[in-house]
Amino acid sequence: MEETLLSIIIPNINSKVIHKPSPIYPIQQKNDDVLYFDGCSKGNPGPSGIGAVLYKNNNEHWSDSRYIGNKRTNNEAEYCALIMGLEEAINCNIKNLSVCGDSLLVINQVNGIYKVKHVNLIPLYAKVMELTKHFKYIEFTHVYRNENKRADKLSNIALELSNMEIYENLVKDTNPNDNKTVKQSFLPNINAKY
Asked: How confident is the model over 87-104, as pLDDT tens digits?
């Protein structure tokens, strides 16, 4: 028997619409733009990667994977992946967006079902809430891992490639006479204004 995802539309104070899980109404994905995101951490906390994919009319429009560091939790990675995807959707001037992720914790937190209690997640959650203000309509839906394969693969690729020098962002030290390089990883700028 095939399972069907269900949700109910609840308006919030910013006149956006967010999906909350419910056994009553089927999901009505009216948006042409859909974001899938995923984060992974080996060791939890440990080395972590993120992946996100934007689809337009069921065709992949954009995707990215990034290594985010050696001491991140899986939940931090999930939030970083969501932030990366939302920032790209804003850059693409998308105004109506369906967001799908396999982290029940993150989806329920952004939908207001769960409280955000962990000190490391509070600023990431706040950043997501700030980014949602850029959309006329946004919905967050939990999907199972098998429905999030592309984003999952991207997050794992970032983690696998993190040890390879060609993948990491290498920048020259500020001293032009010094040939040292500094390895940088992606962490969202939670203070950035859009």
From this structure: 999 999 999 999 999 999
